[in-house]
Amino acid sequence: MARIDAFLKLGTQQGCSDVHLAVGVPPMLRMHGDLLPIKFRDLRQGELEGYITEILTRSQVDVLTKGNDLDFSYVSSEGGRFRVNVFRKETGMGATFRSIPQEVPTLEKLALPPIVTKLCDFHQGMILVTGSTGTGKSTTLAAMIDHLNQTRRLNIISLEDPIEFVHRSKNSQVIQRELGTHIPSFAEGVRAAMREDPDVILVGELRDAETITMAMTAAETGHLVLGTLHTTSAVKTIDRIIDALPVEEREQTKSFLAQSLLAVVTQVLVKTIDGRGRKAICEVLMMTKAIAKLIQTEQSHQIPTQMQMGRDLGMSLLDQSLFAALTAREIDPDDAYVYASEKKGFQKYVTDTSMLPKADLTGPSPAQKPTSPASA
After folding, report:
1. I need a labelling partner for 316 at 20 to 30 A (CA). Which of 38, 96, 158, 341 fits?
2. Cis peptide before 162 (omega within 30 of 0)
3. Greatest CA separation found in the chain?
4. C-alpha span between 47 and 302 (Å, rounded)
5. Per residue, what are the HEC states of 360-374?
6. 125: phi > 0 → left, psi -120 to 50 → alpha, else beta; which?
7. Residue 31 burial (CB < 10 Å; 0-12/13-18/19+)?
8. What is the dihedral of CA 62, 68, 73, 75, to 10 degrees?
Protein backbone atom coordinates (compact mmCIF):
# COMPACT_ATOMS: atom_id res chain seq x y z
CA MET A 1 0.00 0.00 0.00
CA ALA A 2 1.39 3.38 -1.01
CA ARG A 3 1.64 5.81 1.91
CA ILE A 4 -0.47 8.39 0.09
CA ASP A 5 -3.40 5.95 0.11
CA ALA A 6 -4.03 6.73 3.79
CA PHE A 7 -4.87 10.37 2.94
CA LEU A 8 -6.98 9.30 -0.02
CA LYS A 9 -8.88 6.76 2.09
CA LEU A 10 -9.62 9.45 4.68
CA GLY A 11 -10.89 11.79 1.98
CA THR A 12 -13.09 9.10 0.47
CA GLN A 13 -14.55 8.17 3.86
CA GLN A 14 -15.35 11.84 4.53
CA GLY A 15 -17.07 12.17 1.17
CA CYS A 16 -14.78 14.90 -0.13
CA SER A 17 -14.39 15.77 -3.80
CA ASP A 18 -10.64 16.53 -3.72
CA VAL A 19 -7.56 15.88 -1.62
CA HIS A 20 -4.90 18.62 -1.74
CA LEU A 21 -1.28 18.00 -0.78
CA ALA A 22 1.31 20.78 -0.82
CA VAL A 23 4.64 21.54 0.85
CA GLY A 24 4.37 23.84 3.86
CA VAL A 25 0.74 23.12 4.78
CA PRO A 26 -1.15 20.09 6.13
CA PRO A 27 -3.20 17.93 3.74
CA MET A 28 -6.55 19.51 2.90
CA LEU A 29 -9.94 18.14 1.83
CA ARG A 30 -12.50 19.84 -0.42
CA MET A 31 -15.82 19.32 1.34
CA HIS A 32 -18.95 20.62 -0.41
CA GLY A 33 -16.93 23.39 -1.99
CA ASP A 34 -14.93 24.43 1.10
CA LEU A 35 -11.24 23.60 1.62
CA LEU A 36 -10.59 22.20 5.11
CA PRO A 37 -7.24 21.11 6.65
CA ILE A 38 -6.97 17.74 8.36
CA LYS A 39 -5.17 17.24 11.68
CA PHE A 40 -1.67 16.56 10.42
CA ARG A 41 1.69 18.29 10.38
CA ASP A 42 2.80 20.62 7.59
CA LEU A 43 4.16 18.51 4.73
CA ARG A 44 7.90 18.72 4.01
CA GLN A 45 9.37 18.66 0.51
CA GLY A 46 11.19 15.34 0.81
CA GLU A 47 8.20 13.75 2.51
CA LEU A 48 5.67 14.79 -0.15
CA GLU A 49 8.03 13.95 -3.01
CA GLY A 50 8.38 10.46 -1.54
CA TYR A 51 4.60 10.04 -1.32
CA ILE A 52 4.15 11.09 -4.96
CA THR A 53 7.03 9.20 -6.58
CA GLU A 54 5.81 5.96 -4.96
CA ILE A 55 2.82 5.95 -7.32
CA LEU A 56 4.54 7.18 -10.51
CA THR A 57 5.90 5.20 -13.43
CA ARG A 58 9.49 5.75 -14.55
CA SER A 59 8.36 7.86 -17.51
CA GLN A 60 6.19 10.00 -15.25
CA VAL A 61 9.11 10.57 -12.91
CA ASP A 62 11.17 11.72 -15.91
CA VAL A 63 8.46 14.20 -16.91
CA LEU A 64 8.22 15.57 -13.37
CA THR A 65 12.01 15.81 -13.04
CA LYS A 66 12.08 18.05 -16.11
CA GLY A 67 9.79 20.49 -14.31
CA ASN A 68 6.59 19.63 -16.18
CA ASP A 69 3.17 19.13 -14.61
CA LEU A 70 1.65 15.66 -14.61
CA ASP A 71 -1.95 14.63 -15.27
CA PHE A 72 -2.88 10.98 -14.77
CA SER A 73 -5.42 8.66 -13.19
CA TYR A 74 -4.61 6.60 -10.10
CA VAL A 75 -6.35 3.66 -8.46
CA SER A 76 -5.45 3.33 -4.79
CA SER A 77 -5.08 0.02 -3.01
CA GLU A 78 -8.32 0.83 -1.20
CA GLY A 79 -10.17 0.76 -4.51
CA GLY A 80 -10.73 4.48 -4.98
CA ARG A 81 -10.07 6.04 -8.38
CA PHE A 82 -8.63 9.55 -8.69
CA ARG A 83 -7.73 12.11 -11.33
CA VAL A 84 -4.35 13.51 -10.34
CA ASN A 85 -2.45 16.69 -11.12
CA VAL A 86 1.12 17.02 -9.78
CA PHE A 87 2.86 20.38 -10.06
CA ARG A 88 5.77 22.48 -8.81
CA LYS A 89 5.33 25.77 -6.97
CA GLU A 90 7.54 28.30 -5.24
CA THR A 91 7.79 26.37 -1.98
CA GLY A 92 8.00 22.89 -3.52
CA MET A 93 5.75 20.17 -4.85
CA GLY A 94 1.97 20.06 -4.81
CA ALA A 95 -0.70 17.60 -5.93
CA THR A 96 -4.47 17.49 -6.25
CA PHE A 97 -6.42 14.21 -6.23
CA ARG A 98 -9.99 14.44 -7.60
CA SER A 99 -12.15 11.55 -6.38
CA ILE A 100 -13.98 9.70 -9.15
CA PRO A 101 -17.00 7.60 -8.12
CA GLN A 102 -16.79 3.94 -9.09
CA GLU A 103 -20.28 4.00 -10.57
CA VAL A 104 -21.03 6.32 -13.48
CA PRO A 105 -23.85 8.61 -12.26
CA THR A 106 -27.07 8.72 -14.25
CA LEU A 107 -28.58 11.89 -15.67
CA GLU A 108 -31.55 11.34 -13.36
CA LYS A 109 -29.34 11.10 -10.28
CA LEU A 110 -27.55 14.32 -11.22
CA ALA A 111 -31.00 15.99 -11.48
CA LEU A 112 -29.97 17.83 -14.62
CA PRO A 113 -32.61 19.65 -16.72
CA PRO A 114 -34.69 17.19 -18.83
CA ILE A 115 -33.39 18.85 -22.01
CA VAL A 116 -29.93 17.34 -21.33
CA THR A 117 -31.40 13.85 -21.73
CA LYS A 118 -33.15 14.89 -24.96
CA LEU A 119 -29.82 16.15 -26.35
CA CYS A 120 -28.64 12.53 -26.36
CA ASP A 121 -31.19 11.78 -29.10
CA PHE A 122 -29.30 13.81 -31.71
CA HIS A 123 -27.27 11.98 -34.33
CA GLN A 124 -25.13 14.80 -35.73
CA GLY A 125 -23.75 18.13 -34.55
CA MET A 126 -21.90 19.53 -31.53
CA ILE A 127 -22.98 19.74 -27.91
CA LEU A 128 -20.76 21.67 -25.48
CA VAL A 129 -20.73 21.35 -21.69
CA THR A 130 -18.89 24.30 -20.20
CA GLY A 131 -17.99 25.85 -16.87
CA SER A 132 -15.08 26.67 -14.61
CA THR A 133 -12.73 23.98 -13.31
CA GLY A 134 -14.46 21.72 -10.78
CA THR A 135 -18.04 22.40 -11.84
CA GLY A 136 -18.81 18.81 -12.81
CA LYS A 137 -18.42 18.99 -16.60
CA SER A 138 -16.73 15.57 -16.77
CA THR A 139 -19.45 14.04 -14.60
CA THR A 140 -22.22 15.40 -16.82
CA LEU A 141 -20.50 14.14 -19.96
CA ALA A 142 -19.93 10.72 -18.36
CA ALA A 143 -23.64 10.52 -17.54
CA MET A 144 -24.52 11.44 -21.14
CA ILE A 145 -22.15 8.78 -22.48
CA ASP A 146 -23.66 6.23 -20.10
CA HIS A 147 -27.16 7.14 -21.31
CA LEU A 148 -26.10 6.68 -24.94
CA ASN A 149 -24.34 3.44 -23.99
CA GLN A 150 -27.53 2.03 -22.49
CA THR A 151 -30.14 3.31 -24.95
CA ARG A 152 -28.51 3.22 -28.41
CA ARG A 153 -26.26 0.92 -30.46
CA LEU A 154 -23.30 3.15 -31.25
CA ASN A 155 -19.54 3.27 -31.55
CA ILE A 156 -18.55 5.87 -28.94
CA ILE A 157 -14.96 7.11 -28.86
CA SER A 158 -14.02 9.12 -25.77
CA LEU A 159 -10.78 11.14 -25.73
CA GLU A 160 -9.82 12.11 -22.19
CA ASP A 161 -7.02 13.73 -20.16
CA PRO A 162 -6.85 11.54 -18.14
CA ILE A 163 -9.49 8.78 -18.25
CA GLU A 164 -11.80 9.32 -15.28
CA PHE A 165 -15.01 7.28 -15.24
CA VAL A 166 -14.48 3.83 -16.74
CA HIS A 167 -17.31 2.81 -19.07
CA ARG A 168 -18.18 -0.81 -19.73
CA SER A 169 -19.70 -1.39 -23.14
CA LYS A 170 -23.44 -2.17 -22.87
CA ASN A 171 -25.65 -1.69 -25.93
CA SER A 172 -22.93 0.48 -27.43
CA GLN A 173 -19.20 0.01 -27.81
CA VAL A 174 -17.28 2.57 -25.73
CA ILE A 175 -13.61 3.12 -26.57
CA GLN A 176 -11.70 5.33 -24.12
CA ARG A 177 -8.35 6.79 -25.15
CA GLU A 178 -6.07 8.81 -22.88
CA LEU A 179 -3.98 11.82 -23.84
CA GLY A 180 -0.28 11.03 -23.55
CA THR A 181 -0.93 7.28 -23.23
CA HIS A 182 -2.91 6.44 -26.37
CA ILE A 183 -2.97 9.72 -28.33
CA PRO A 184 -0.41 12.58 -28.58
CA SER A 185 -3.04 15.34 -28.64
CA PHE A 186 -6.80 15.84 -28.75
CA ALA A 187 -6.57 17.01 -32.35
CA GLU A 188 -4.75 13.82 -33.38
CA GLY A 189 -7.23 11.80 -31.37
CA VAL A 190 -10.17 13.30 -33.28
CA ARG A 191 -8.37 12.82 -36.59
CA ALA A 192 -7.79 9.15 -35.77
CA ALA A 193 -11.33 8.67 -34.43
CA MET A 194 -12.82 9.78 -37.74
CA ARG A 195 -11.15 6.76 -39.36
CA GLU A 196 -12.57 4.37 -36.74
CA ASP A 197 -16.24 4.38 -37.82
CA PRO A 198 -17.48 6.52 -34.91
CA ASP A 199 -21.03 7.58 -34.17
CA VAL A 200 -20.13 9.73 -31.16
CA ILE A 201 -16.81 11.44 -30.36
CA LEU A 202 -16.20 12.96 -26.95
CA VAL A 203 -13.37 15.51 -26.84
CA GLY A 204 -12.14 16.06 -23.28
CA GLU A 205 -11.27 19.70 -23.91
CA LEU A 206 -11.40 21.99 -26.93
CA ARG A 207 -8.21 23.66 -25.80
CA ASP A 208 -6.66 24.96 -29.05
CA ALA A 209 -7.52 26.02 -32.59
CA GLU A 210 -6.47 22.71 -34.14
CA THR A 211 -8.68 20.66 -31.80
CA ILE A 212 -11.64 22.99 -32.34
CA THR A 213 -11.20 22.74 -36.12
CA MET A 214 -11.03 18.95 -36.07
CA ALA A 215 -14.08 18.73 -33.76
CA MET A 216 -16.01 21.04 -36.09
CA THR A 217 -15.07 18.88 -39.08
CA ALA A 218 -16.27 15.75 -37.25
CA ALA A 219 -19.59 17.41 -36.39
CA GLU A 220 -20.09 18.60 -39.98
CA THR A 221 -19.41 15.17 -41.46
CA GLY A 222 -22.19 13.27 -39.74
CA HIS A 223 -20.98 12.62 -36.19
CA LEU A 224 -22.27 13.66 -32.79
CA VAL A 225 -19.45 15.52 -31.01
CA LEU A 226 -19.47 16.23 -27.27
CA GLY A 227 -16.88 18.60 -25.87
CA THR A 228 -15.95 20.98 -23.07
CA LEU A 229 -14.66 24.52 -22.72
CA HIS A 230 -13.68 26.48 -19.64
CA THR A 231 -16.22 29.22 -20.30
CA THR A 232 -18.83 30.52 -17.88
CA SER A 233 -21.79 31.29 -20.14
CA ALA A 234 -23.26 30.31 -23.49
CA VAL A 235 -22.38 33.67 -25.06
CA LYS A 236 -18.77 33.48 -23.84
CA THR A 237 -18.55 29.96 -25.29
CA ILE A 238 -19.61 31.13 -28.74
CA ASP A 239 -17.27 34.13 -28.61
CA ARG A 240 -14.38 31.93 -27.43
CA ILE A 241 -14.73 29.55 -30.38
CA ILE A 242 -14.93 32.40 -32.90
CA ASP A 243 -11.93 34.19 -31.36
CA ALA A 244 -9.85 31.00 -31.09
CA LEU A 245 -9.66 30.47 -34.85
CA PRO A 246 -7.75 32.57 -37.43
CA VAL A 247 -9.44 35.75 -38.67
CA GLU A 248 -9.62 34.39 -42.21
CA GLU A 249 -11.77 31.50 -40.90
CA ARG A 250 -14.17 33.73 -38.98
CA GLU A 251 -17.05 33.54 -41.47
CA GLN A 252 -16.66 29.78 -41.80
CA THR A 253 -16.67 29.39 -38.00
CA LYS A 254 -19.83 31.49 -37.61
CA SER A 255 -21.49 29.42 -40.31
CA PHE A 256 -20.54 26.20 -38.51
CA LEU A 257 -21.91 27.43 -35.19
CA ALA A 258 -25.16 28.54 -36.80
CA GLN A 259 -25.66 25.22 -38.60
CA SER A 260 -24.00 22.52 -36.45
CA LEU A 261 -23.89 23.74 -32.84
CA LEU A 262 -26.85 22.03 -31.17
CA ALA A 263 -26.59 23.29 -27.59
CA VAL A 264 -24.39 24.79 -24.90
CA VAL A 265 -24.89 23.64 -21.30
CA THR A 266 -23.00 25.80 -18.80
CA GLN A 267 -23.04 24.67 -15.20
CA VAL A 268 -22.02 25.67 -11.70
CA LEU A 269 -22.13 23.64 -8.48
CA VAL A 270 -24.14 25.35 -5.74
CA LYS A 271 -24.42 24.22 -2.12
CA THR A 272 -27.66 22.48 -1.23
CA ILE A 273 -29.88 24.13 1.36
CA ASP A 274 -28.80 21.63 4.05
CA GLY A 275 -25.11 22.30 3.33
CA ARG A 276 -24.37 18.59 2.88
CA GLY A 277 -23.84 18.55 -0.87
CA ARG A 278 -23.83 20.55 -4.07
CA LYS A 279 -26.30 20.68 -6.93
CA ALA A 280 -25.52 21.36 -10.58
CA ILE A 281 -27.34 24.46 -11.82
CA CYS A 282 -27.36 24.87 -15.60
CA GLU A 283 -27.64 27.60 -18.17
CA VAL A 284 -28.89 26.06 -21.43
CA LEU A 285 -28.75 27.44 -24.96
CA MET A 286 -30.51 25.56 -27.75
CA MET A 287 -29.74 26.62 -31.31
CA THR A 288 -32.66 28.29 -33.08
CA LYS A 289 -32.96 30.24 -36.32
CA ALA A 290 -33.03 33.50 -34.36
CA ILE A 291 -29.87 32.68 -32.40
CA ALA A 292 -28.15 31.40 -35.56
CA LYS A 293 -28.85 34.75 -37.23
CA LEU A 294 -27.43 36.64 -34.23
CA ILE A 295 -24.23 34.58 -34.45
CA GLN A 296 -23.84 35.19 -38.17
CA THR A 297 -24.41 38.93 -37.78
CA GLU A 298 -22.07 39.14 -34.75
CA GLN A 299 -24.80 40.21 -32.34
CA SER A 300 -24.11 37.58 -29.69
CA HIS A 301 -24.84 40.15 -26.96
CA GLN A 302 -28.54 39.77 -27.85
CA ILE A 303 -28.54 35.99 -27.38
CA PRO A 304 -29.53 36.14 -23.66
CA THR A 305 -32.81 37.81 -24.66
CA GLN A 306 -33.59 34.90 -26.98
CA MET A 307 -32.67 32.44 -24.22
CA GLN A 308 -35.03 34.18 -21.82
CA MET A 309 -37.87 33.68 -24.27
CA GLY A 310 -36.94 30.07 -25.04
CA ARG A 311 -38.17 28.32 -21.91
CA ASP A 312 -40.52 26.09 -23.97
CA LEU A 313 -37.46 24.79 -25.87
CA GLY A 314 -35.58 23.96 -22.65
CA MET A 315 -33.50 27.14 -22.61
CA SER A 316 -32.67 28.99 -19.42
CA LEU A 317 -30.27 31.68 -18.29
CA LEU A 318 -28.17 30.82 -15.24
CA ASP A 319 -30.01 33.36 -13.07
CA GLN A 320 -33.36 31.84 -14.08
CA SER A 321 -32.15 28.37 -13.10
CA LEU A 322 -30.69 29.65 -9.83
CA PHE A 323 -33.95 31.41 -8.95
CA ALA A 324 -36.04 28.33 -9.74
CA ALA A 325 -33.82 26.14 -7.51
CA LEU A 326 -33.82 28.79 -4.80
CA THR A 327 -37.60 29.12 -4.65
CA ALA A 328 -37.88 25.31 -4.64
CA ARG A 329 -35.61 25.35 -1.55
CA GLU A 330 -33.01 23.14 -3.25
CA ILE A 331 -29.97 25.40 -2.87
CA ASP A 332 -28.39 27.64 -0.27
CA PRO A 333 -29.55 31.26 -0.79
CA ASP A 334 -26.16 32.74 0.06
CA ASP A 335 -24.42 30.52 -2.47
CA ALA A 336 -27.07 31.34 -5.07
CA TYR A 337 -26.33 35.03 -4.52
CA VAL A 338 -22.61 34.41 -5.08
CA TYR A 339 -23.21 32.75 -8.47
CA ALA A 340 -25.94 35.09 -9.72
CA SER A 341 -25.04 37.53 -12.49
CA GLU A 342 -27.74 40.06 -11.60
CA LYS A 343 -27.51 39.90 -7.82
CA LYS A 344 -30.19 42.43 -6.94
CA GLY A 345 -33.05 39.98 -7.37
CA PHE A 346 -31.39 37.55 -4.95
CA GLN A 347 -30.56 40.02 -2.16
CA LYS A 348 -33.78 39.56 -0.18
CA TYR A 349 -33.06 35.81 0.19
CA VAL A 350 -29.54 36.23 1.59
CA THR A 351 -29.14 35.14 5.23
CA ASP A 352 -25.58 36.41 5.70
CA THR A 353 -26.15 40.16 5.36
CA SER A 354 -22.39 40.85 5.46
CA MET A 355 -22.37 39.65 1.85
CA LEU A 356 -24.61 42.47 0.71
CA PRO A 357 -23.23 45.76 -0.62
CA LYS A 358 -22.98 48.41 2.06
CA ALA A 359 -25.23 51.43 1.62
CA ASP A 360 -23.42 54.76 1.81
CA LEU A 361 -25.47 56.62 4.41
CA THR A 362 -23.04 59.50 4.88
CA GLY A 363 -23.18 60.90 1.35
CA PRO A 364 -20.22 62.54 -0.36
CA SER A 365 -18.28 65.28 1.40
CA PRO A 366 -18.54 68.79 -0.08
CA ALA A 367 -15.20 68.29 -1.81
CA GLN A 368 -16.44 65.02 -3.34
CA LYS A 369 -19.84 66.26 -4.53
CA PRO A 370 -20.13 65.97 -8.30
CA THR A 371 -20.38 69.17 -10.26
CA SER A 372 -23.73 69.56 -12.00
CA PRO A 373 -23.74 70.06 -15.75
CA ALA A 374 -25.20 73.54 -15.26
CA SER A 375 -22.30 74.73 -13.13
CA ALA A 376 -19.58 72.97 -15.09
Report:
1. 158
2. yes
3. 79
4. 54
5. CCCCCCCCCCCCCCC
6. left
7. middle
8. 50
